[in-house]
User: Fold this.
Amino acid sequence: MSEPSIFFTEVNERQGVFHRRAFLMGGLSGLGLLALTGRLAHLQLVEAQRYEKMSASNQFNFRLVPPPRGLIVDRNGVILASNRPNFRLLVAKDGKMDPEGTVKTLAHFVPLDAERQARLTKDLIRAPKRSPVSVMEDMSWEQFSAINVRAPELPGVTADMGEVRVYPHGGAFAHVIGYVAKVNREDIQPTGPNSEAIMLHPGFRIGRQGVEKAFDLRLRGRPGAQKVEVDANGREVRQDSEGDIPATPGAEIQLSLDADIQTRALEVMGDESGAVVMLDCRTGDVLCMASAPSFDANRFVRGMTRPEYQALANYERKPLLDKAMSGLYPPGSTFKPTVALAALEAGINPEVRIHCSGGWYFGGRTWRCWKPGGHGSQNMHDAIKNSCDVYFYQTALRIGPDPIARAAHALGFGQTFDLGIPGQKKGIVGSKEWKRKAVKREPVWQPGDSVSYGIGQGYVNVNALQLAVMTARLANGRKALNPRLVRSIGGKELPSGAAVPDLPFQQAHIDYVRGAMIAVANDVTGTAYRQSQLGLGDVMMAGKTGTAQVRSYDGVADRNSASVQWKLKDHNLFVAFAPYDAPRYALSVIVEHGGLGGATAGAPRAREVMRVALLKDPEIRARIEKPLPMPELTPDGLAEGAAPGAPVPGAPPLATPPSGGAV
Amino acid sequence: MTVSALTRPGERDRLVVKFSEIDWLFSFALCLIAGAGALMMFSIAGSSWEPWAGAHLFRFGVLFVVMVVLAMVDLRVWFAIAYPLYGVGLVLLVLVEAVGDTRMGAQRWLDLGPLGSFQPSEVMKLGIVLGLARFYHSISADDARFSWWLLVPVLMIAAPVVLVAHQPDLGTAMLILMTGVAVVVLAGLDWRVIATGLGAAVISVPPMVMFVLHEYQRKRIFTFLDPESDPSGSGYHILQSKIALGSGGFLGKGYGLGSQSQLNFLPEKQTDFIFATLAEEFGFVGCFSVLFLYAVVIFMALRTAALAHSHFGRLATAGVTATFALYVMINGGMVMGLAPVVGVPMPMLSYGGTVMATVMIGFGLVQAVRVHRYSEVTSGKGSFL
Assistant:
């Protein structure tokens, strides 16, 4: 055992110091490793849960999924706005991608012209990281699958299936329903519902007009989320469909409109410019509210090019304007039933006759009747039936503006109704007080103002909706109703328009005016007799014609000449309700620059729209289909023996205002 | 073979005897660590030998053979080449300053034409240990404690540290400095000098940080102090590494299932942050096992140092061990968010040939000291070369 001696041969001071210090170094290393172990234990045992959460939030992302937008349906459940699948090509910028190169590559798969490529590249560079930019919508299945196959090699490129809004009726409901469009920078607000992240989703659309805008939040629904596993570059690695949160679809909105009536109304308007509004007299439901010409709302969803938009905006018949609610027109002779009612309420005896000789001299000038030869001796019934201007000049002058304004307000003029959608204009109902406030230049109501007021010219301006409300209220008797456009939201019924005070008129007076309106359409001498025949047996229509003058006719020889420029022609108005013996449907038609006399352009169109509504109504249908009653049982007010299509004696039924009214 | 047989003159010079004297437990621990590294590289490459795991194992195999061969080299040869190696290292550092390649903003690489390129600072890691060991071998314990002789080791350390820091490669410079200081302390520096030096170092850290460091280095330090201040910027590495570690928990997420590393949230997952990769997939158990292996390596090397008869052998072994331990501490601290992010890999575990070569050649020296632990190395000019 000589080992120990070898071991200690070099025992010296240097070795001793080294051994002590090496021991110390070993101790320090041990301490260091222990410290590392302690730190490990802290991270992996004590704080493990916290880091597990952070790891999971790294690993998994929730991708927002836009909810299906709520449907919009008509009163019978016909779809007016729905969603259809859309194959979409998206590019999201991530750290390493080259926007220009990617767009160039994509141009091999989908048609992208040079201008579009440049714009996309710019958009991509500007877009926030990882927020996708839509390259193309509505790809074909072939394009969609080609992109999907190549997607793994194209960083940031995804082809997915989204939904896009579709309006199956094209333009028929464009003004009421409006449309949806891409979200603008201005739409995004720092707080509130318009601050949500879903706003940035390329598939998300915001309501821009009409119902889509007014009920946007209800239609939107709640976005869902898709759980995906992502890598550090935000690229999707795997989907975890069990972790998905389903989207809540938007609420379905049912309108009171009837798709058939609306479509027919737009059809009969043809190329004309104007509006048709129909109400259900008993409930106030708006069955039709069309503005012509219209536009295809689907084009707005896709996004319009500048020339396309300019073509719409610059067309002189103004397709983008909703003429039913925001187009204001002088009511012309359609205002005469209102004046008549005011006169009856003011104590005028309707049987007192006024002589019409084709004109009336008052205030230093001649107020002409539309019928140059005059109507002769007229009571109130005849004056409405014949639309005699002279009778109403004098009657309005006698009772003054304020009773007329009261009656007009009660019948629905000069006000807006709560339809739920924006855009109504109040219009003007002239009165002494109104003029004092509104007309600074000449604040005092002049007798001449009353004269033109009597025939619906001058200080009176209405829209098609108000005309329809007036007609519905007259037709329904004393029970007034407010129009209702939205029947239910998400299955919850909205109150009907019944909560309105009764009309402040005596029933007998209303009946008198109604009788006169029946005569307009059904007396062979009425101004709209020929154009108002429904051809539905004893189901017949009552109405009133009107012409709204757009310029002064002093010195103009022929007002109805074909040579008159379209923009200078008179507006043509017609209001109607049917069946006249048990009114159900009230209607107003305005044909802009439709020419002289409400019967020429307005009444035939009103008749066509009314026929659709009547034929759709099962009760009316039953009445039409049962055998005709004996002729002697026909209700009074209808001229005996006047069969449809019989020759009509007398002048053509034209209602012409004088040249005096300020328009 | 009996102990007495080993005492026979010339017996210890036989190759077979030398081979049997290699520290096989130590070597086995190294193999396990390298194997663990390859395992992790296989996992993060998506169960593939390409591109890292295969190369890592191949390199380790070659360098293991190199280590065994170097273990056969007589200690006197190591002693003889100590100063030349240090000298060559210094010359190369000057050369790299003059004609070196600039990569990633730092002049660290020397282009050797067809042989590729390498970092002269790696030569210096070994050169400083050998040079200092040889110097201290020649002076007495009293001189080593405190004397004018100490100016020599101070200059020997300062020259490479300044040159490397100027590249700038602060991590390596600090490593060389700390290795050198470790050797000086182990050689028997007076405690009072050590205390003074420590005090001076502590006082000079803040002004160094503010005025001497580069902007990116300063930023790293500030980020280290408050990593969550900028989680997507420079604090990202530390935060993601800590998430990988912490989410591993006790048993880990399972082999091949580490989301942080597999989905690239972890930066430098196969090199500097491979320990975090391991921690995520094998949890505390895996980490503890690997740290235990490192402890085995360090303590076996220190044991070799303690056994050596020559002062040169002792100091050289302890110096190499100090370098190795520093690597482990710095990388471990960085991965766990205890130290700033510096480009120091986990030796044997991380992918990368340069550091592995340095460490394995150093361990060749350690093995040689063990094999030749009874050899006397005469001081001064007593070498046979």
Remarks:
- Residues 259-296+324-633 of chain A form a domain with the Beta-lactamase fold (CATH 3.40.710.10).
- Residues 345 and 505 of chain A are 7 Å apart (CA to CA).
